[in-house]
Write a structure and sequence with these properties.
With 74 residues, the chain is mainly α. The chain contains three helices and no strands. Helix 1 packs across helix 2 (19-34) and helix 2 packs across helix 3.
């Protein structure tokens, strides 16, 4: 998977969030596609974007908790 930082930066500005947040979103979205998820149909869209939101929320919570130094967290 390849993420272009310039495209991520442009999309982040349009979405009103940081480039880092956009890269996290693009990475999560891409991985879900690699795992077989899609969003062509309404039910697929609901499932994939729901899971994407869940993953990003958990990731943000973990990052804001500052869990970076303790090996037991990994």
């Amino acid at each position: 998977m390849i993420i272009c930082p310039q495209v991520a930066e442009r999309q982040a500005r349009k979405a009103g969030h940081s480039t880092e947040a956009e890269i996290d979103l693009l990475c999560t979205h891409g991985i879900l596609h690699l795992l077989g998820y899609d969003h062509a149909e309404p039910d697929e869209h609901k499932e994939m974007f729901g899971l994407q939101a869940e993953i990003l929320s958990a990731w943000c919570e973990r990052e804001s908790a500052g869990s970076g130094g303790d090996e037991s967290d990994r």
